Amino acid sequence: MEISNKSSKIKLITSGIIPFLFLIILMAYIFGPGSDLLDLGIPLPEITIEKVDFMNSEIQVTVRNTGPISVEVAMADINDRIQPAAVEPDKYLNRYETALVRIPFEWNEAEPYRIGITIEDGTRFEKEIEAAAPAIKPSLELAWFFAIIGTYVGIIPVMIGLLWLPFIKRISKQKYHFFLALTVGLLLFLGIDAVEEALEVSKENLADVFNGGLLVATVTILSFLGLYYAGEKLLKTTQSSRLTKPVAIALMISVGIGLHNFGEGLAIGAAVGMGSIAFSTFLIIGFALHNTTEGIAIAAPMSRERKVIGKLALMGLIAGSPAIFGAWIGGFAYSPFSSVIFLSIGAGAIFQVIIIILNMIRVECNNNLSNASVVSGISVGLVVMYLTGILI
Amino acid sequence: MILSLSILIGLSVVVFLTTFSDAQSESKTFVTHSGAIVTTTGEILDPLYAVSTVDFDPMGYLRDFNYGQVSQLSDGTTLREFTIIAEDDKIMEVSPGIFYNVWTFNGTVPGPTIRATEGDLLRISFINNGSKEHTIHFHGIHPAEMDGVFEPVGGNGGRFVYEFEAGPVGVHPYHCHVMPLEEHIVHGLYGVFIVDPKEERPIADEMVMVLNGLDTDFDTENNFYAANTIPFYYQHHPIQIKTNELIRIYVVNMVEFDPINNFHLHGNLYKYYPTGTDLVPSFYTDMITLSQTERGIMEFQYEYPGKYLFHAHKVEFSEKGWVGIFLVNDNDEKNTELDYGN
């Protein structure tokens, strides 16, 4: 019995491995030495200018090899005029490798610049900067500034939103359903917004090789699935712990909104970092108004609970404070790739929360999601978000 | 668990992709436009001021005149025979670190400077070792069948002999005239053809400057401009001349894509002979404008020693390579003994 069990296990493993062996043979045949099957077409080199920093009498350009073959950086220019420059650590870039090109240049604030990098085959790659602004240097003062802004944008508006709790507590069941549905509408809008933002960042700043659209889709869905699984586990444990189901749901909403606010923090930090100060003022006002509605989203599912003030405050912090971290990262260490990742994780989190709340409403309304309060709630949520979103 | 795992994977991808580089410690310095000295641990990309050499030697080309293999015909006419070979597969380093597929006459861009006296018989054996059809079309006066337009010479060893009387007096371009013409010209199939008057021009330090451009990324805009192909070459390798010595430059504008080019000389003015066809100068100026294949002869001498720029006053062109320096040495002090010693 033992032996046959063992041999069947070996059979199982072998049958799982055999296709891989054939795949390896196929790859070796196509790509291996001496194979000229795929020796067609000429691979075109490509680099992407990911970041341009305006320093003291110097412009610093971060380039990444985003093509299929290694390249050599050969020359730098500003506004199509050749400039002496230095490249660190060296001019040879393997696939995906980055280098810093330092171009000494007396640039003028608020003027547009076109930065060009030419590689060894004479191809020139360009990035246009709308207005030059001094790169910000990490300092305690600036970190404090970002923390304050993050508080204004993230924590305070969410807390203000939570103040609607007594109001929601006193209303009828139908109106309560309306507010739960309103939360769904709000979140739906935020989810779509995050996906759109992620796609936009990837389109503008990410090289084609990263496959922006699919990156966003993959990360969003993975985030959704991961949180969905974790959320179900959390809900199951509510049966055996002190955590009640509505509190668990509110917690999940705060986590989702927290990830979303992290993205907003990134946007603000990056806008300040790129020197578009006026733009970031609008961002700050817009996000602040916008985020007040997020407080309602957290408050609504908890409104039938008792003694929630402490928990609510904690959830306000969970939902709001990531804006501070986002602003730090966006301002001090902006990278389009990580922004896309964070925005997509946020989107997945929000869609997961939507499913949870819809489930909650469905149970409360006896499987009827098409009643007036639910439909109007979702609609009003979307419209409110759209209108406050215009302010950004 | 899965959540934290996916976040971990996501973060490690982010970190991995942003720190994919290794460090180097040795530091180097270079000087900028404004004289600032910059220190770097990396490599220097400076085609402007850093002395560098590439495949082609513009200093050799500058004063290299080819008079051909000379013989006398029975009627006393001088026969000058040349061999010119076209190729179109050469990859040349045109600026430090930048490689471009040049099409060449006798292996260089521009091709050899062909020089003859008015009335000489020219016999130019043309061999096309390229992969495409090529010809040589001379500007000047010659029979229709010697025009290099309707007689394409096939690649991989095709041959043709161009034979005509040198004339008129002046400086002329020659270039391939196979369609698509722009492509054949911008890849480098051109050169200078000088016809001297029977009564020689006064002795001078003579040089040839072909003003040309290179479109290395094929977007019909030039990435580089130069006098004699290599951008900034005469800036980091100044042309040495002497005070009070007559300088004569045969200038030919072969820039494509941009409608005009120009030539500005510092600290001096030159006498200008458009196309070199007249022995009396038309202008005394420090600035002339040249359209496509427009050319002429400039004559000047410097009174004061020192460094003088010459460049396109279309500053875009000069900042992309069409700029150089004359280093004027004192004629009397250093060179008198050498000159009169023998």
Shape descriptor of chain B reads globular
For the secondary structure, the number of strands of chain B is 24
Structural class computed from helices and strand pairing of chain A = alpha+beta
Shape of chain A: flat
Major β-sheet profile of chain B: 6 strands, mixed
The count of domains of chain A is 2
Structural class of chain B: mainly beta
The major beta sheet of chain A can be summarized as: 5 strands, antiparallel
For the residues shown, what is the average pLDDT of chain B? 89
Strand portion of chain B, in percent? 35-45%
Whole-number tally of structural domains of chain B = 1
- Run of helices and strands of chain B: HEEEHEEEEEEEEEHEEEHEEEEEEEEHEH
Helix content class of chain B:
10-25%
CATH topology name of chain B, in short, is: Immunoglobulin-like
**Multimer state:** heterodimer
Fold blueprint:
The complex is a heterodimer of chains A (392) and B (342).
Chain A: H1 2-31, E1 47-55, E2 58-65, E3 71-78, E4 81-83, E5 85-88, E6 92-93, E7 98-104, E8 113-119, E9 124-129, H2 140-162, H3 165-170, H4 173-205, H5 212-237, H6 245-273, H7 277-302, H8 309-320, H9 322-332, H10 336-364, H11 372-390
Antiparallel strand pairs in A: 1-2, 2-7, 3-4, 3-6, 3-8, 5-7, 8-9
Chain B: H1 2-18, E1 28-31, E2 37-40, E3 43-45, H2 58-62, E4 65-66, E5 69-72, E6 78-95, E7 98-105, E8 113-117, E9 121-128, E10 137-138, E11 158-165, E12 170-175, H3 181-186, E13 190-196, E14 205-214, E15 224-227, H4 233-236, E16 239-242, E17 247-253, E18 261-265, E19 270-274, E20 283-285, E21 287-290, E22 295-300, E23 306-311, H5 315-318, E24 323-329, H6 331-340
